[in-house]
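Hi again,

Forgot to attach this to my earlier email, sorry! This is the prediction with PMV bound. I've pasted everything inline since the attachment limit keeps bouncing my files.
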Amino acid sequence: MPAVSASAPGKVILFGEHAVVYGQPAIAAPVTGVYVKVIIQSNPIQPPGSIEIESPAANFHATRAELPEQHPLHILFHQIEQTLQISHLPAMKIRINSTLPTGAGMGSSAAVSIAMTRAITQFIGLPLANDQVNQIAFEVEKAFHGNPSGIDNTVITYQMPIYYVRNHQPQLIHVKEPLVLVIANAGAAPSTAEMVAGVRQRWQQSPGRYEQIFQRIGQIVQSARHVLEQDNWKKLASLMDENNQLLQEMGVSSPALDRLVNAALQCGALGAKLTGGGGGGNIIALVEAESADSIARKLMERGAVHTWLTTLRPIPEDHQQ
Ligand code: PMV
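Structure tokens for the complex follow:
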């Protein structure tokens, strides 16, 4: 069998993280400048089921047989076999190349699952529909994160901005105007599972207060969707700022994130907020296209560990689904 490959992009959550775990809507978008690419070659000298996995970026090399049962890749292979109703995958060598940082809230675990599922199923001539790819990646996300909302695997599967409510079909968002974001990393973050567990604990202590925050975030997400689809993108700025304040109230920001959000606003961003699980990791800043490079540079001078630029673009009408 010839070698095959498949890629999956990164993602950012624009609005609604954490509240989405409690049934509120959220909006996420793909980040196409960073990606995971999976390349598969057959390994005819090995018996069926023998799989060799190598990920130079993660300094990871293992065979399937060596993986513990709860390892996400073990779960992934098993999920693919179950979905395809086959007893075992053929022998293969899998190489994972990634420019996606891990643990920065850019969806690297979901991107690996999705690129891997697409590459493996193409390799054996049984490609799956998006819904099935998404479901497999969701099962693997559960092994990584405990109680994920499913937003990461969904936005990365569909590679479009989405409006997402837990346990519902995602709705694709067609942005009216191009929108430029600077993503800046404020340094290491605790795991998403830890951040989600922290919110749960505080919600249990003050349910009324937290329900109010979640509901207000839900309203912000509705307004943001309307702006993205129909209005002047600059109106997103104040919605980002308010969403960020609510995330701060929820206790998921950090001094480093707050500093970077303030720095972005001082350097000319229109709005800024933390994105993803929080406690560290990334912020996103809404910027005018012409000032994006200089704001990214200034954020590096003001303590960002890394920056990325991403643009959400309208899709020509004849390409819309
Ligand atoms: O840390 P990230 O970017 O994977 O985002 C997690 C988003 C949360 O809403 C905090 C959790 C979830 O499962 O939706």
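The radius of gyration is 20 Å. DSSP finds nine helices and eleven strands in the chain.

That should be everything now.

G.
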